[in-house]
Design goal:
Elements (H helix, E strand, L loop, with lengths): L2 H13 L3 H14 L4 H13 L3 H14 L4 H13 L3 H12 L9
Helix pairs in contact: 1-2, 2-3, 3-4, 3-5, 4-5, 5-6
Length: 107
């Protein structure tokens, strides 16, 4: 199948708030080519919308392994971690991503 068509289908379904179907389209896209960072990110977003936070975290960590400098991945991971009640990890990611020169806080 055409990878771009599958990805665009996923995006269209997500726009229509049909997240479960979007997840299927993104997974089909990744089955053909798993090295697409933005597809992993979109998959994670759809999973988060379905409250499948552990799966969203896994998708984001997969994407981060491919592109550790993409700020959107870090931002989305921080949101997922907050949803998983892992506020300290979320805050640490946010701090490093958005304030890389700031020294760590002492408590």
């Amino acid at each position: 199948q055409d990878v771009d068509a599958l990805f665009q289908l996923g995006r269209a379904l997500a726009t229509q708030l049909r997240f479960e179907e979007a997840i299927e389209a993104y997974r089909a896209t990744l089955a053909v080519n798993p090295k697409q960072v933005f597809v992993w990110n979109n998959l994670a977003t759809a999973l988060r919308e379905c409250e499948r936070l552990e799966e969203a975290e896994e998708a984001l960590r997969t994407a981060l392994a491919m592109d550790p400098n993409l700020v959107a991945l870090h931002t989305n991971l921080a949101m997922v971690l907050r949803g998983l009640d892992r506020a300290k990890e979320s805050l640490a990611i946010t701090r490093v991503t958005h304030c890389p020169q700031a020294p760590p806080r002492q408590r």
